[in-house]
Design a protein that fits this description.
Helix content: over 70%
CATH architecture of the largest domain: Alpha Horseshoe
Radius of gyration: 40 Å
CATH superfamily of the largest domain: Tetratricopeptide repeat domain
Shape: flat
Length: 572
Amino acid sequence: MSKLRLYLFLFVLTFSLGKTQFLFAQQLSKTAEEFVSLARENEAAGNANQASFYFDKAANIYWRSNDYEKAAEYFEKALENITKVGNKNGEKVLLSNLALIYSEQGNYGKAIQYFEKSLAIANSQGRRQEVGQTLLNISTVQLEQGNLQSAVNTLNQAQSVAQEISDQKLLRNVYYNLNKAYEAMSNTQKAAEYFSLYAMLTKKIQAEEIRLKEQQAKAMVDSAGRVVQQVSQEKEQTVKKLVETSNELQQRDKTLKEVEKLTREQQMQIELLNAEMRLRDAELKHQKLLEKVYIGLILISIVITALILYAYIEKRKANRMLAEKNEEISRQRDAISRQADELRELNSLKDKLFSIIAHDLRSPLFSLITMLNIAKEGHFTPESFKQILDELSDNVNHTTSLLENLLTWAKNQMHGTKVNPLNFDIKELADSRLRLLKDAAESKEVRLINNIAAGTYIFADKDMTDIVVRNLISNAIKFCNAGDRVTLWSFSDGATVTVCVEDTGLGMTPDVQDKLFGTQITSTPGTKNEKGTGLGLILCKEFIQMNGGAIWAESQPGKGSKFFFTLPAVKA
């Protein structure tokens, strides 16, 4: 009977696990299809960077589900889009992923083809570790093909790179593949030589990893040991008090017994000396004796109860202290987890910034150099030269805005920007910024209006506020068409001043509004295909919050947008 129950339990467990895996696979497939849909929408809208991002997400889900055909299909689509924006880092990663998938499918020719393209990009960037890893991957595919001599030649190159950059793990893997290659070539001497090198280097790496883990574990044990020692000391003190109390109770019980014995002896002597007195007073003495016993028992009960209550209070106190220690440890663990999340978020933001610098900053400078060289050689007519100058002016303005935002953001992240609040008229600051942006607005036939009342004073960092106003007005102009207007207005509740930058431009959908002030860097082209940096609103949010204010947006598609921010009013 017990075996039957066991079989039924195993059957139900297997069925449940299978059902769970099936539901999980269904959920992954649904998520992948959603990413593909988002990718196609961005591709149709001409946003190749976002399209590549979503195609890559979908491909990775299919890869984890072992659906290699769909994974390869969407990695190819991601590669096609990332190539359009000139993101070499992204192109290199996608090429490596495609090579690995084709290798798993047994399509070794295509795998080597994509690995070699990835290798060319890594060499051009001077990333020696990635060069060595890609050479190692190529050698693995050559071994699978049975192309042993080519594998050895490739591994010799990888070995040189690994030794050059002192990468022990890469060198260990190179020795492992060389051992496999010479074994397949029946060169037992060489195979044994490289196996010895592989084993020796593996042992060294493992010893180093174990040493580092032991150091980390020792630090954690020392920290926990101090807490345990403190709790143990408190427990010992409580136990000691309980033992002392128990001894005191035993001593009092012994004394009580001695008193009772002495009383009985005295009573017997009285009865022997005077029988008549005993008969006459026996009832009275018996009652008095009972009263004494009852009183004694009551007193003892009170003492015992008091001691038990005291021990209980001490135990509760010890338990409360232990709970507080556990709560403190939990808070510290939560704080460490939040710091790790923030570091991952900052690291992701850093990678996206490098991508922006690599493309948005380099491309306009290369265009400027190329146009100037052509102009120097006299290949432009006066009419075409004026047109080129207008285009170069737009590129330089975009590059200047990008550099200004990047430098401001970098200073704030690396060194921390100190807030220097002072009293100033926000209308005067807005007038100054509108004068600087007047040419940009007139080139798009956009009207700039400042309806902020004169004498509207706020208490904040003036430079930070200037950057916020500049970014919001520039964004408003960017998404306006000819005939639209950008209006600045404000109101105050006494404690704070709320400033609004309102435009009659394109407006935004709710999903775009939700991403405005997040940590993800995104940029949408303007009505005349003006480029953006993606950093402006991030800087606005940081600077407004650092000055004790808030920032938000209201918008409807086709009805324009309103960007609000609050700052402290001047203190009376």
